[in-house]
Every structure is written in structure tokens, then in C-alpha cells.
Amino acid sequence: MANPRFETQSNEKPVYRDWRAGSAPPFKLAKTDEDIATRDTGTVSVYSGSLGSETDTTDNIEDVFNLTDQQADSGTWVLLLRVNGEWALLPLECPA
């Protein structure tokens, strides 16, 4: 039986459809604009485009919460997640 959370388009790639039609997905790719300390908030720049060729959308999000126990340095790639209606980040890079 097919998973009801996925549907197949004509190109045969599954598309996740758990959020409402017309609404934004609950995640974004971004880079930090400043150092964001553990369990603190800061500003990030949202990126989009083909993997490896992402560009800054000039859409900045403020008050993004760092969920982790490590600082996210300025310029770190992060994944933004919607948690209880607010944006939180998870770093995609390991600290040096």
C-alpha cells in the first residue's frame, strides 16, 4: 500500500504533501548572519536554488532559535525548522 503522505507526479518523484496546499514548507536552507550562541536567537539569510549553486534570496529571518548545545558561527549553513510556530536552527556543519 502506498504511503498516503507522498504522492507521485508525472516525473515519478515523490512529493511530500503533509503541509497544507499553498503554504510554505516547514523548513528552509539558510546561513547565519552572526554568531548565534547555544540556546539563543539570531538572524539568518535564506538561500535557495540548485544544490551546490544556492544563492541568497535576500530574505532574512530574525529571532531564529539555536536548538543545539553548540554555537553556530557567522556564515554557518543551517537548516531552519518550524517549531510551535517559530523558527529554530540546526547547524549543517561540524564545528572546527
What does this structure look like?
Helix content is 0%, strand content 47%. By secondary structure, it is mostly beta strands. The chain has a single domain, classed as OB fold (Dihydrolipoamide Acetyltransferase, E2P). The strands form two sheets. A five-stranded mixed β-barrel has the order 3-4-5-7-6. It has a two-stranded antiparallel sheet with strand order 1-2. A hairpin with a 2-residue loop joins strand 6 and strand 7 (86-91). The termini are far apart.
What would you say about this model in short?
The chain is mainly β. It has strands spanning 6-8, 14-16, 27-32, 41-48, 55-66, 77-83, 86-91. The termini are far apart.
Q: Any idea what the shape is?
A: globular
Oligomer: single chain
Share in helix: under 10%
Helices and strands, in order, run as: EEEEEEE
Mean pLDDT across residues: 82
- Kindly, what is the distance between the CA atoms of the first and last residues, rounded to a whole number of angstroms? 45 Å
What is the alpha-carbon Rg in Å?
15 Å
Biggest pleated sheet: 5 strands, mixed, barrel
Poorly predicted segments: 3-11, 13-17
Q: Which architecture name does CATH use?
A: Beta Barrel
Total number of helical segments? 0
What structural class do the secondary elements suggest? mainly beta
Number of strands: 7
CATH topology tier name: OB fold (Dihydrolipoamide Acetyltransferase, E2P)
Order of adjacent strands in the largest pleated sheet: 3-4-5-7-6
Q: Strand-residue fraction?
A: over 45%
Q: What's the domain count?
A: 1
CATH class: Mainly Beta
